[in-house]
């Protein structure tokens, strides 16, 4: 869905997955301009991530957007958990059946796999692609915002008073250029800015271009604390995934790289094709009474992350 929308609007989109035949089929079925490009790789493997980055660097040189979309669900709970009401009215309730279901549903390895894909891989995939995201900013002439805090540097001629420190080593002062070097000097050969207009001819007031961005697909399940969750390990991992995406917004801010998180409900996919998530069952849990009626009851906080950095009731 995301890849199709981007490619239909002119973007070149690289889709990554372990099963080449699956992503090749997806590219074939959704390509409009032939710009959805499948690349085989495993985001839980750092060596594979490095190889993917180098492949895209050689082909494209930069990226503007990274979408962390991979996710898995393990340790699926049954639709009905044993309850004290299941025991006969004249019998003392036993918690053993309930305990056994929680104990036997999945394994510690399933917990680890959930966090490996839903959290750890999101972090290392983002880190692996940081330089290409940075080059996407430099291509547009977007310097890291903290550079504006640097005091201006003026030419300084050497003089006799510029002498050594108390260990006797001299410090040479070389004349500096009147203007700082272009950020584009660090771009790969052949990669240039989309706007080559000299600064002197730019309008006084320009609308700033959007900077590079990381979008992480988490889940509405990351906020659930009720007893009817599909998987405890999935819910916990997606909660951590949501937290990571918000943390990255602050971690990457000095570099002008944005981080946002989408927390969708259940959408049709290979992962959601289970007896627990049929359209009829989903419709029962949606206030409008039909599956997919998701633009309802939502609060869209769009303030650049300001409220999230202040004392507030926003979580």
Written description of the protein model:
Helix 5 (108-128) packs parallel to helix 7 (232-251). Mean pLDDT is 80; it is low at 159-186 and 193-204. This protein has a domain at 41-86 and 94-147 and 209-258: NAD(P)-binding Rossmann-like Domain (Rossmann fold). The two termini are 28 Å apart. It has a three-stranded parallel sheet, with helices on one face. A two-stranded parallel ribbon has the order 1-2. It has helices at residues 2-8, 20-30, 46-59, 96-104, 108-128, 130-139, 232-251, 279-285, and strands at 13-17, 36-40, 65-68, 213-217, 258-262. By secondary structure, the protein is mainly α. Strand 1, helix 2 and strand 2 form a beta-alpha-beta unit.
Provide the fold topology.
Elements: H1 2-8, E1 13-17, H2 20-30, E2 36-40, H3 46-59, E3 65-68, H4 96-104, H5 108-128, H6 130-139, E4 213-217, H7 232-251, E5 258-262, H8 279-285
Parallel strand pairs: 1-2, 3-4, 4-5
Helix pairs in contact: 5-7
Please summarize what this structure is.
Belongs to the short-chain dehydrogenases/reductases (SDR) family. By secondary structure, the protein is mainly alpha-helical. The protein contains 8 helices and 5 strands.
Q: Give me the CATH fold name of one domain.
A: Rossmann fold
Number of strands: 5
Distance between the termini: 28 Å
Under the CATH scheme, the architecture of one domain is 3-Layer(aba) Sandwich
Overall shape: it is globular
Quaternary state of this entry equals single chain
Kindly report the average pLDDT value.
Answer: 80
How large a portion of the residues is in β-strands, by DSSP E? 5-15%
CATH domain class of one domain: Alpha Beta
Number of helices: 8
- Helix and strand sequence: HEHEHEHHHEHEH
CATH superfamily of one domain: NAD(P)-binding Rossmann-like Domain
- Proportion of helical residues: 25-40%
User: Uncertain regions: pLDDT < 50 for 5+ in a row?
Assistant: 159-186, 193-204
Main beta sheet, described? 3 strands, parallel
Biggest β-sheet: strands ordered side by side in the sheet: 3-4-5
Rg, alpha carbons:
26 Å
What would you call the structural class?
mainly alpha
GO molecular function, one term: oxidoreductase activity
Pfam family, one: adh_short
Family: Belongs to the short-chain dehydrogenases/reductases (SDR) family.
InterPro entries: NAD(P)-bd_dom_sf, SDR_fam, Sec_Metab_Biosynth_SDR
């Amino acid at each position: 869905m995301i890849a199709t929308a981007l490619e239909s609007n002119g973007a070149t989109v690289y889709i990554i997955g372990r099963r080449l035949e699956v992503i090749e089929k997806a590219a074939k079925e959704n390509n409009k301009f032939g710009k959805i490009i499948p690349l085989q790789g495993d985001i839980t493997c750092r060596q594979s991530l490095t190889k993917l980055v180098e492949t895209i660097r050689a082909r494209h040189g930069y990226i503007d957007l990274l979408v962390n979309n991979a996710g898995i669900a393990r340790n699926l709970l049954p639709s009905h958990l044993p309850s004290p009401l299941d025991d006969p009215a004249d019998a003392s309730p036993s918690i053993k059946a309930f305990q056994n279901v929680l104990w036997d549903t999945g394994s510690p390895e399933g917990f680890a796999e959930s966090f490996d894909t839903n959290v750890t891989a999101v972090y290392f995939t983002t880190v692996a692609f940081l330089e290409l995201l940075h080059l996407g900013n430099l291509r547009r002439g977007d310097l890291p915002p903290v550079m504006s805090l640097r005091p201006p540097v003026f030419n300084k001629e050497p003089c006799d008073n510029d002498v050594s420190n108390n260990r006797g080593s001299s410090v040479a002062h070389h004349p500096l250029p009147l203007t700082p070097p272009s950020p584009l000097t660090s771009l790969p050969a052949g990669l240039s800015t989309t706007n080559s207009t000299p600064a002197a001819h730019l309008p006084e007031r320009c609308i700033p271009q959007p900077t590079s961005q990381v979008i992480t697909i988490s889940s509405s399940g990351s906020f659930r604390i009720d007893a009817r969750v599909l998987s405890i390990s999935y819910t916990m991992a997606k909660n951590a995934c949501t937290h990571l995406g918000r943390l990255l917004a602050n971690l990457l801010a000095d570099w002008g790289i944005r981080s946002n998180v989408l927390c969708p409900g259940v959408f049709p996919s290979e992962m959601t094709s289970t007896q627990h998530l049929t359209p009829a069952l989903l419709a029962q849990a949606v206030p409008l009474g039909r599956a997919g009626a998701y633009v309802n009851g939502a609060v869209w906080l769009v303030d650049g992350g300001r409220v999230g950095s202040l004392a507030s009731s926003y979580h």
